[in-house]
Design brief:
This protein has 20 helices and 26 strands. It is globular and about 70 Å long. 36% of the residues lie in helices and 22% in strands. Strands 14, 15, 16, 17, 20, 21, 23, 24, 25 and 26 form a ten-stranded mixed sheet that branches. A seven-stranded parallel sheet has the order 5-2-8-1-9-12-13, sandwiched between helices. The protein is of the alpha/beta class.
């Protein structure tokens, strides 16, 4: 960032909140940031949220779901951290490429500038060049076209004390100085563990975490304390004293059953009022009536339904985070709790298919890559089709549905995807023409939002209530157009098409209670305030198949 850029920061109208974490990872900085964003949004403020990730990967697109969890895809085709899904679901603002920055992306930009000669004559160093690049990205995300967001919340990935996080922490320290301390605050999320042997909550980890922050020059303004049990006033006073913050700025972040309760808990703790006060923001009181009603519906549903999620990454539920939340949203709109039964698709080939699905009212097959577990998914599709169980296939789930239909209805023996069998005699799923000569793995799939035209009088048209939609994608393989006539003659309806390249986007079976497959990822656009129509109607169909009275 040049001196001129630093001067621009002095007059920037946005306010900045930096969220850091300490003690251990996975405390929930993303949900905490999203919850704070929601509270500020319902005060009438225009809010955006950014994630700074310390890993060297340019993005998480090439990382295993077992390591990183779900890859969240934005409309503009960015493969991002799953926390961006939380941001979108809570504040109902579409994220973009700008909202997720990694160490890899930062270093790539700085090295490219060095190679072009932008730093000619200078030694390129972490300070100021890397930290300036990070600051410039915080500035960029604050811009909304010709305008600026009122508040920018920036979450720093990792834990204070990690070597890889240091450049980001130094950058936000500098950023606070550049914009002025009345325009930037630091919120530190930490852990107050309960030691069962002594029956006590312990504050020492929090004290040490804040000490590490202060050693690098950042004094937290607010502490959010993750805890299993309520913090007494005495404990808050102790934390405040040893961490150099007001006891009123020690916010209890207690464990809850529904993540959507968290904004209400933070509000009761006075978090949003404290933020508004410290940043000198002139805004209204939070309008929480609708959110309170939504949380009440989530906590007190009338009915319950069990749906199977048949995937290959089920040992780590974060691999399907957006799907889990989309079911939560659909449950709220159907006044029901959706209980998910996790089925490892590799196990299905070892036992009878019925033993996995006899007690469920719906089957969902999510996306995935590679041959492992695919035959189990295909068996699951067949069971759903032949036993009239509501079915939703997403991305690879659609492809498995097409393979199953081709094998057992069209009688194309050994039909398959070329991803799984290069020499299959019936490649009903094939690589896209645009992907044939692609060799690099990162950021090269069909990514982001594409339009789809829906056939009139189809189930998809009824579900969406319109004939033109836009949905987000992440894949390389498609339904092979050479087999479309055979599939349609056998009874499959190809009800959604991307017309520009004549690609199948939605399939359905009309002689089935509810059987839909989509090439895109509808879960990415579901919101807590309005469920995605595909999930809403799928859950509705499952409830019609079989539901029970909800019991905790």
């Amino acid at each position: 960032m040049s001196d001129f850029d630093r001067k621009k920061l002095v007059n920037i109208p946005s306010k900045f909140i930096f969220v850091t974490g300490g003690v251990v990872s996975s405390l929930g900085k993303g949900i905490a940031s999203a919850s704070l964003g929601r509270l500020l949004k319902v005060r009438g403020l225009k809010v955006t949220i950014q994630k700074l990730d310390p890993y060297i990967n340019v993005d998480p697109g090439t990382m295993s779901p077992f390591q990183h969890g779900e890859v969240f895809v934005t409309d503009d085709g960015a493969e991002t951290d799953l926390d961006l899904g939380h941001y979108e679901r809570f504040i109902d603002v579409n994220m973009t490429q700008k909202n997720n920055t990694t160490t890899g992306r930062v270093y790539d930009a700085v090295i490219s500038k060095e190679r072009r000669g932008d730093y000619l004559g200078k030694t390129v160093q972490v300070i100021p060049h890397i930290t300036d690049e990070i600051q410039s990205r915080i500035y960029q995300v604050a811009q909304d076209g010709d305008d600026f967001y009122d508040v920018v919340i920036t979450e720093i990935g990792g834990t204070v004390g990690d070597i890889e996080s240091l450049p980001f922490l130094e950058a936000i320290r500098q950023f606070g100085l550049n914009v002025g301390r009345e325009n930037a605050i630091y919120v530190h999320l930490t852990l107050v563990p309960f030691i069962r042997a002594s029956g006590e909550l312990k504050t020492k980890p929090t004290q040490h975490s804040v000490m590490r922050m202060r050693e690098i020059g950042i004094q937290p303004d607010i502490l959010m304390c993750r805890t299993e049990y309520p913090l007494s006033d005495e404990l808050k006073q102790k934390i405040g004293l040893f961490c150099n913050v007001s006891p009123h700025a020690v916010i209890e972040a207690i464990d809850v059953k529904s993540i959507y309760e968290i904004p209400l808990i933070f509000h009761d703790e006075g978090l949003d009022g404290l933020v508004v006060e410290k940043l000198h923001i002139d805004c209204g009181e939070p309008q929480l009536k609708n959110w309170i009603a939504l949380v009440k519906k989530a906590k007190e549903p009338r009915r319950c339904v069990k749906i199977a999620v048949c995937g290959k990454y089920v040992d780590l539920h974060d691999s399907y985070k957006s799907i889990i939340e989309a079911f939560a949203h659909a449950g709220i709109e159907n006044d029901a709790r959706v209980r998910l039964k996790w089925v490892d698709s590799e196990d299905i080939v070892k036992k009878s298919t019925e033993s996995f699905f006899h007690d469920v009212s719906g089957i969902l097959i999510p996306g995935g890559f590679g041959i492992r577990g695919t035959e189990g998914k295909i068996q699951a599709v067949r069971y759903a089709r032949e036993n009239n169980i509501p079915f939703l296939g997403i991305c690879l789930g659609l492809q498995c549905a097409v393979i199953e239909f081709a094998r057992h209805v069209c009688h194309l023996q050994n039909a398959n995807s070329k991803e799984f069998n290069e020499s299959t005699p019936y490649p009903v799923i094939d690589i896209m023409d645009t992907q044939v000569n692609v060799h690099e793995k990162g950021g090269t799939m069909r990514l982001g939002a594409y339009p789809c035209v829906i056939k009139t009088a189809s189930k998809a048209a009824k579900i969406y209530g319109k004939l033109e939609i836009s949905e987000r994608h992440r894949h390389r393989f498609e339904v092979n157009n050479k087999f479309r006539d055979q599939l349609e003659k056998a009874g499959m309806v190809l009800s959604g098409i991307y017309e520009k390249e004549d690609l199948v986007e939605i399939i359905e079976l009309p002689d089935h209670p509810w059987f839909v497959g989509v090439q895109f990822h509808p879960e990415l656009k579901s919101r807590v305030t309005y469920a995605h129509p595909l999930f809403r109607e799928f859950v509705k169909a499952a409830l019609e198949k079989h539901s029970t009275e909800f019991k905790e």
